[in-house]
């Protein structure tokens, strides 16, 4: 049996070496052919160069990997690219045919060879993830081998038997979009899970605000009401909080955390806004640090020619793809649409790179056998903001995420635990022309005409208006005394569907044709809540109890026929408020797992995930803490001091 195992291992290694040699030969031949002024392409000399590249790589790459692992962070990214170029420069310097001379020519040829190798490898794999999977498997086997104290192992470590929970968030994917894509056959991995009955899919309602930070505050910490929007103003400190800024995220997490988050017991947070009290935080915004030296998955991805360098080359190709798709929208006069230039040209390839890095980090943690992992993949959400949530380029990103789920499924046998996979989203998206496109002016400009001292803070089609001269939140009477035209002016605007303000009898929602008193549900005239769905009253009431909510809360109108909304930001696909599919998130989980909570709001999803962790034996049941999401007032500078930026925490 041992001889047979060794023979299979030798056969696999032989095929891998042969494939690498052929690819290297083709790469070098193309590179030398493309190099200006290079005479002679002798096959024997090129074969000798192939052997030299392999020898130099065998010597230098382990040393460079050690350096990359020791440095971590940004230095690992830089050295990861340099490593591929250095190997090729050294090999070309000692080329038997001496066809490239001079350092500038050597560096240029090496960079060209690295680019050609990345593109050729992608084409050989027919655009599949086979190479990525092979590299991830090698990483996982190395992690498990070192954990077992072995320098070399000829047989694959056995698959783990103890349960683990892997939670993958597909950012911004609405449940109706997911079901439509599955029925169309465009998501083969998720489609197979649902059709075979191993998993089931259900919708859950995000409530207000329908943003990633608010949802993750609930899912990871059970504390949604600490976050009234993607950004907001705090009157007690005079600070504008933006939840994707690391320093602000650190302050916010100090308010969220009670030490009992979703990932408390040895869990890992990857690519999230907040940590969920995880022991290990990788690319988590609130911890403001790149993975350190103990995150071998980061170093391995950066050092591998099939990792960061390949993703960088393909990312450049993604920029050209984006330029072509944006041009098609303009030529066809596709409406609604927004500009897709500027920062988005960098965001699109960056999100693709982040996806591959995150999956590599997940693979490493699966090999380590951590009990629970929560990872956010943002590709779809970024593209859908600018292209539209159901447009072809957005659906292509969703298909890529489905492929990544397939990659994780293929990597599962290498894991130190038997991981159960749960897939969920944090919110959906709603499409529509922007407020400025429809009415020729922004909401800020509308408000400034009605109240000059007001600050407008928007998140999608949700906006909060703060009267900054008042030190605390004020109600309708004070607002009308100082700015008698503000509430009536906003309500009369055709682009505004709801204006919510505190009155003597509690919060009241004003609409173009009526009023809805939220505490008792009394309606005068036409109910302004009807276009937004059956959860609207509860959503608004819950939002009014959030910390630092605006003096007025404004939500744009929704088209009853198309369900389109008008974002107060320049986004064709938006979320943050109400209307359309932005509050329709999805949850895919093993079909035989019980659902013990009504999934209304992120806090309910948090409790459900906790129940599943308890069911799997990964967590001891806590005492009932259903009131954890009540707002805790910030104490300004004192809370900011407590929430200082922390370094990466790794266990």
UniProtKB/TrEMBL annotation:
SUPFAM superfamilies given in the database record: Alkaline phosphatase-like
Membrane-spanning ranges: 16-35, 47-67, 74-94, 106-124
Keyword Metal-binding: no
Sequence segments annotated as region (Disordered): 627-651
InterPro entries given in the database record: Alkaline_phosphatase_core_sf (IPR017850), Phosphodiest/P_Trfase (IPR002591)
Taxonomy, superkingdom: Bacteria
Claim: Transmembrane is one of the keywords in the record: yes
Residues making up the signal peptide according to the UniProt record: none
Pfam families: Phosphodiest
Keywords in alphabetical order: Membrane, Transmembrane, Transmembrane helix
UniProt name for this protein: Membrane protein
Organism: Actinoplanes lobatus
């Amino acid at each position: 049996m041992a001889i047979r195992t060794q023979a299979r291992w030798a056969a696999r290694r032989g095929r891998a070496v042969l494939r690498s040699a052929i690819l290297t030969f083709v790469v070098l031949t193309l590179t030398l052919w493309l190099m200006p002024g290079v005479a002679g392409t002798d096959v024997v000399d090129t074969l000798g160069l192939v052997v030299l590249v392999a020898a130099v790589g065998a010597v230098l790459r382990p040393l460079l990997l050690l350096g990359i692992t020791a440095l971590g962070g940004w230095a690992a990214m830089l050295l990861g690219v340099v490593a591929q170029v250095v190997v090729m420069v050294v090999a070309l310097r000692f080329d038997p045919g001496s066809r490239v001379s001079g350092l500038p020519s050597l560096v240029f040829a090496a960079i060209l060879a690295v680019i050609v190798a990345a593109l050729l490898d992608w084409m050989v794999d027919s655009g599949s993830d086979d190479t990525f999977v092979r590299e991830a498997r090698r990483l996982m086997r190395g992690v498990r081998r070192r954990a077992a104290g072995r320098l070399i192992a000829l047989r694959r470590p056995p698959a783990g038997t103890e349960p683990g929970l892997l939670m993958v968030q597909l950012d911004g994917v609405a449940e109706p979009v997911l079901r439509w894509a599955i029925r169309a056959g465009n998501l083969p991995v998720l489609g197979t899970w649902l059709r075979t009955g191993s998993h089931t899919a259900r919708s859950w309602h995000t409530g207000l605000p329908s943003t990633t930070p608010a949802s993750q505050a609930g899912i990871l910490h059970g504390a949604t009401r600490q976050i009234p929007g993607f950004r907001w103003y705090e009157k007690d400190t005079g600070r504008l909080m933006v939840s994707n800024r690391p320093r602000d995220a650190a302050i916010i997490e100090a308010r969220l955390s009670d030490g009992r988050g979703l990932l408390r017991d040895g869990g890992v947070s990857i690519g999230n806004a907040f940590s969920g009290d995880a022991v290990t935080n990788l690319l988590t915004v609130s911890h403001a640090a790149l993975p350190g030296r103990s995150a071998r998955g980061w170093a391995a991805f950066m050092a591998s020619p099939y990792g960061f360098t390949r993703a960088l080359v393909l990312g450049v190709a993604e920029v050209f793809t984006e330029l072509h798709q944006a041009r098609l929208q303009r030529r066809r006069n596709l409406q609604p649409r927004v500009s897709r230039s500027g920062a988005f040209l960098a965001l699109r390839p960056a999100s693709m790179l982040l996806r591959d890095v995150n999956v590599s980090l997940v693979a490493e943690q699966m090999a380590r056998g951590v009990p629970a992992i929560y990872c956010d993949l943002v590709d779809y959400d970024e593209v859908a903001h600018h292209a539209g949530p159901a447009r072809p380029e957005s659906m292509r990103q969703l298909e890529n995420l489905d492929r990544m789920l397939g990659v994780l499924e293929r990597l599962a046998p290498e894991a130190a635990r038997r991981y159960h996979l749960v897939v969920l989203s944090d919110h959906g998206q709603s499409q529509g022309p922007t407020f400025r496109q429809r009415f020729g002016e922004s909401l800020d400009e509308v408000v400034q005409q009605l109240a000059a001292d007001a600050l407008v803070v928007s998140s999608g089609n949700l906006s909060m208006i703060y009267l900054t001269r008042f030190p605390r939140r004020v109600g309708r009477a004070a607002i009308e005394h100082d700015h008698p035209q503000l509430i009536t002016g906003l309500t009369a605007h055709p682009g505004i569907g709801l204006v919510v303000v505190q009155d003597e009898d509690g919060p009241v929602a004003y609409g173009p044709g009526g009023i809805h008193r939220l505490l008792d549900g009394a309606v005068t005239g036409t109910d302004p809540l009807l276009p937004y769905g059956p959860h609207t009253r509860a959503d608004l009431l819950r939002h009014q109890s959030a910390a630092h909510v605006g003096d007025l809360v404004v939500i744009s109108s929704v088209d009853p026929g198309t369900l389109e909304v008008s974002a107060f930001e320049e986004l064709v696909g938006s979320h943050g408020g109400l209307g359309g599919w932005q509050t329709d998130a999805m949850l895919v989980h093993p079909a035989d797992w019980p659902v013990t909570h009504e999934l209304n709001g992120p806090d309910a999803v948090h409790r459900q995930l906790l129940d599943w962790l308890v069911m799997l034996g990964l967590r001891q049941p806590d005492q009932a803490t259903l009131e954890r999401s009540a707002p805790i007032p910030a104490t300004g500078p004192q809370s900011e001091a407590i929430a200082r930026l922390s370094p990466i925490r790794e266990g």
